[in-house]
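assembly run, all chains below
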Amino acid sequence: MSTTTSTEKARTVVTGIGLCAPNGLGPTAYWKNTLRGQSGIGPITRFDTSKYWSKIAGEVPGFEPAEHLQGRLLPQTDHMTRLALVATDWALWGAGLRSTDVPEYDMAVVTAATAGGYEFGQREMQKLWQQGPDFVSAYQSFAWFYAVNTGQISIRHGMRGPGAVLVTEQAGGLDAVGHARRQLRKGVRMALTGGIDSSLCPWAWVAHQVSGSLSRSNDARKAYLPFDEDANGYVTGEGGAIFVLETADSAAQRYPVRVYGEIAGYAATFDSRVPGREPGLRRAAELALADAGMSTKDIDVVFADAAGTPELDKAEAEAINGLFGPHGVPVTAPKTMTGRLFAGGASLDLASALLSVWDGVIPPTVNIRHPNKDYELDLVLDDPRHQRVRAALVLARGRGGYNSAIVVCEYNR
Amino acid sequence: MSKPTQLTIDDLKKIMRECAGEDDAVSLEGDILDTSFLDLGYDSLALLETAALVKRQYGVTVSDEDLHGIETPRAFLTKVNSVLAPV
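ok done. output:
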């Protein structure tokens, strides 16, 4: 077998997970709280919401940037970049990998972003209009930018292989991982990938409020109810996850190393602009299964996109039932505890899926009191379901017609 | 308020800390007059930021072109002070 063939088929495994979530800082706290059904959604504390009708979100608790990052980085980073840098450090640490262990051009960085450094951008725009151009930080040149996390991670760890950023709204958290896998198959040894978003500042809040789907409820337990008869929109939040992806060969060389699972299949589709056409979500899932060489029988749980609006929930239920049949597979949405985190949300779901496979437990969906029976879904409600998870399907939809799906599975050497 | 008439190395260190931060790896303590900004961990953007703060506090403009030729704190101070107190 030639080298080219082997890299084309190179298996991709996850050996490190770093995350920041509204219900837990770091994978251990997040997973413990998620299995307990503990939500991180609550009143916004980061800015004064008195002038806004929406007042709740999922904020990452207890994050003190100076505890984790050197002073040099603070003037040049937005909050979401700080979260991403710290999550990256944790992912590498968990993988037992130092960036100096791998040749610099053999390491890729692929992240997803939705809003960039919005809070940083707001502050500098205010300086521009209130004080003048001389007061705007030189770091505004990149700190607000969608690609900034990829750049800062690359610089921090001397990773000079392929760098990229994907902007496909919520789907980005999966698309980044799909693209990182592509780079591994082209011959890169390891990649840092995933997405972390945060846009909890007044400027962003104006945009969130006109999105059309933000929940009108400010009751943390009733605002975000995907697949419920009372579904009335979503709650937003901040955070996400960063992964260390390696080729199975690379991981095997470093044995013993913890392999959470394998990225077995990935696919992305677009919705048609033609009215009446079926949305692309089911096709994305089918293609990801085909890419993994699996059938629906192999999937033990689906992590739903869980948009939280009746129309989108119905469409997702139809996509899932179209593949698995009514009540054909456990479906869960732990993001009911975090809110929708944009690109970070799908990455966090992927982290949950990998932890499910690793740990043999499906995390619950919370706050759903009246699941819509017409959807015919086997929702994992309130309590975790302890069972072997050989493979999980993660679904994500991004505003504007993006659909992505990833299949993760147990890794057998 | 009258503008200060001289920029000292201590003033400059304070400005550098304020606008670009400091970390454990590279210290600004001690004699850094002839240490290059790059060796101090301050890249071109950090220097731009430093120049912007000097402009706000001292009213002296160091142009982007001038910055290109300035590699050390001593050269930076010489440039600024030549404008503040022309010899």
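The radius of gyration of chain B is 12 Å.

Chain B touches chain A through 15 residues (CB under 8 Å).

not gonna interpret more than that til we talk
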